[in-house]
Amino acid sequence: MKTALITGVTGQDGSYLAEHLLDLGYKVVAMMRRSATPSTERLSNCLDRIEIVNGDLIDQSSLMRILAEHKPDEIYNLAAQSFVHSSFHEPIHTGEVTGLGVIRLLEAVRLVVPEARFYQASSSEMFGKVHEVPQKEDTPFHPRSPYGVAKVYGHWATVNYRESYDMYACSGILFNHESPRRGLEFVTRKISDAVAGIVFGEQDKLALGNLDAKRDWGFAGDYIKAMHLMLQQDEAKDYVVATNETHSIREFCTIAFERVGLEYEDFVVIDPRFYRPAEVELLLGDATKAREELGWEPEVDFRGLVEMMVDSDLQRRLDRRLTVQKGSLPGAMAAS
How many of the other CB atoms lie within 10 Å of CB of 291? Predict the structure, then answer.
C-alpha cells in the first residue's frame, strides 16, 4: 500500500484528492495546522479513513518529523495562502507560506525521504500579464499579485530541486478550478452562494468587481486526478492543467442566474473595492501536453460546473432552513 502525504488537505483540492487516493487504495496522511477549531467540514466523506498530523509550512522541524514518522511515497503540497485578493493585504505572510513554504518542504524531503515523489501546486496566476495566448508550460511568467509572485518562487524551487538533486519533483500549473467546496471568498462561489441567497430572500444584491475578466475554469474533482497522474510517470515533468476554454465572470453570472430563472443584470452591482490593484484580464490554458502524455481529460464542462455549484448552494440553504424549522417544532428540544 502506498502512503501519500497531503498538505492543505482541508481545502477544496485537498479534500477531493484525499477521497481519490483512498479510492485508489492509498494510505492518506493529512497535514493540518494545529488549531483550536480545526476546519474539517470538506473532509466529512473521508475523515474516518485518513490520519491527521499536525504540521506547518512555516515550521520546517514539523515537516521533517512528519516525513520521518510516515515515510510517504508521494507528497502533494497543496497548502498555501491561496486567496489572490488577500495577498495584496498580506504579502509577507503569503510569501512565507506560498513561496518559502515550498522550499522548506522540498528541503525536508531531500534530507529525510529523497526517494519520495513530490507534487507542487503551481498556478495560472503565475502567467499574470500574459505574454501569449493560450499559455503553455514554456510561456514566460509575469505575475500580477503577491500570490502569483510567491507561486513563481515555489514553482522554480521545485524545478531547481529536480535538476540539482535528481528528485522526482514536478509542478501542476493548474488553471482556475472550482467546485461546491470552493471557499466563499472566491468569486465563483460568491456568485453561486449569492444566487441561492437571492432565491431564498436572504439577500437582494451581489457586489462584484471586473465582470469582463476571463478565466479558464474547470472542475476541481477532475483536476486532482491530473495531480496523481503526474506522479505516476517515468520522468518528472511540469504540466498545464486546463480546459482550453475561457469564460468571463459575466458569463458565469449569466449561467448561474439562468439556473434559477433570473437575469443577473437585475441583481449584480459593480463595487470598485473588488478590483485588483493589478488586474489579470485573460487566462487560457493549453493542456495538450497533459492530454497526450498523461491521458487526462476534463469531464465537467463550464455550464455543468456553474450549475453544479448553484444547485449545491441551493440545497445547502434548503437543508439549513429545514434544520431550523425542525428545531423550532414543539417538543423538539425535549426530544433532542
Answer: 16
Active-site residue list: 123, 125, 147
pLDDT at 218 over 70: yes
Instruction: Report the chain's C-alpha Rg in angstroms.
Output: 21
Alpha-carbon gap, residue 114 to 101, rounded angstroms: 17
Residues 168, 160 contacting (CB under 8 angstroms): no
- The strand pair at 239-241 and 168-174 is best described as parallel
Residue type, 2: K
pLDDT at 274: 75
| Amino acid sitting at position 171 | S
37 vs 10: CA distance, rounded Å: 12
The SS3 call for residue 116 is: coil
Provide the pLDDT confidence category of residue 282 given band limits of 50, 70 and 90: confident
CA distance 154 to 103: 7
Q: What is the pLDDT, as a whole number, of residue 336? A: 40
Nearest to 310 by CA among 189, 225, 213: 189
From residue 210, alpha-carbon distances to 249, 250, 278, 280, 282 in Å are: 8, 9, 12, 10, 12
Question: Mind listing the domains of the chain with CATH numbers?
Answer: 3-180+217-241 (3.40.50.720)
The type of residue at 29 is V
Burial environment of residue 329 by CB neighbours within 10 A (0 to 12, 13 to 18, 19 or more): exposed
Residue 264 has pLDDT above 70, yes or no: yes
Cβ within 8 Å of residue 234, ≥6 positions away: none
Q: What grid cell was written down for 15?
A: 479534500
What whole-number distance in Å separates Cα of residue 336 and Cα of residue 332? 6
pLDDT digits (tens, 9 = 90+) for 143-171: 999 999 999 999 999 999 999 999 999 99
CB atoms within 10 A of CB 167: 21
Tell me the pLDDT tens digit for each residue of 87-105: 999 999 999 999 999 999 9
Q: Report the DSSP beta bridge partners of residue 159.
A: none
Instruction: Give me the residues paired with residue 76 across strands.
Output: 6, 119
- Which residues are within 8 A (CB) of 12 and not within 5 positions of it... i.e. 6 or more apart? 42, 178, 179, 181, 182, 183, 220
Q: Cell numbers for 80, please give them.
A: 498555501
Can you give the pLDDT at residue 329? 55
